[in-house]
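Deliverable D5.2: sample structural annotation.
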Amino acid sequence: MVHKEQDSTNVGIVFTDLDGTLLNSERKVSANNLTSLNQLGENGIVRVIATGRSHYSFTRVIDASFPADYLIFSSGAGILDLQSGELLFSANLTDHDVADITCKLQEEEADFMVHHQVPDNHHFVYQAAGGGNKDFRHRIDIYRAFAREFGNGNQFPAPAAQIIAVLEHDTRRFTRLTSCFGQYQVTRTTSPLDHHSMWMEIHPHNIHKGSAAAWLCNHLDIDPAHSLGIGNDYNDLDLLDFTAQSYLLKNGPAEIHNRYCLARSNDEDGFCHAVRHGLSIL
């Protein structure tokens, strides 16, 4: 599916993914991308970063002076006003949800983390099924100060912002596991660590980047027909299906290239290219 072109002069809000989209391979924002963000602000266009990172993880790569207005974090579990610091929206799995999901993941011998409620969802309790899941261990090492292993007095937090299962790259297994969680939102993400493993993000039903973008448009009284979205991975699909103009960077998976307008890669100022293509005023 390719989105129809809209009247670019009417764009009122731009949503962009962070890792692999706004950030290059060195996890930096290029000068051209930064200029585009500033130009959007100068033209009164709302700038929203929509990321799978928690708010804490976001602050590790983006400082408080960054030219953006709102943050959708943890793939839609929370929405933050970056100017005031106010948490506008959050969604959590219930105690029953956590018990149900963790039981199924244990039965399936998956490695997973259960994250505390927003805004403290950089803290998590994990359970390993055994084996050599290097990507899973890598994530634990990164957040060692906030990670606790299940057992020995450490229980899964409930309610919880999200549950993340880290899987080897096996599409059939991912699809089979997804079928176990029909009453929840299951989002596929390519690991930002080894760029190969598959992360299964589990949220309450209909909580994802696209639903968060819809909530924010309603909150700001902006017609979604005046929205533009930019992303690069599977966890951006709900966002790109929501926005009126949608761009996928060419460093994204080849199998979804034909679903949206294709822009340059994140190492070729793809964000800037998409913005300039979508907004003739810049």
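Annotation notes: The chain is about 30% helix and 25% strand. Residues 95-107 form the longest helix (13 residues).
The annotation will be released with the project's public dataset once the embargo ends.
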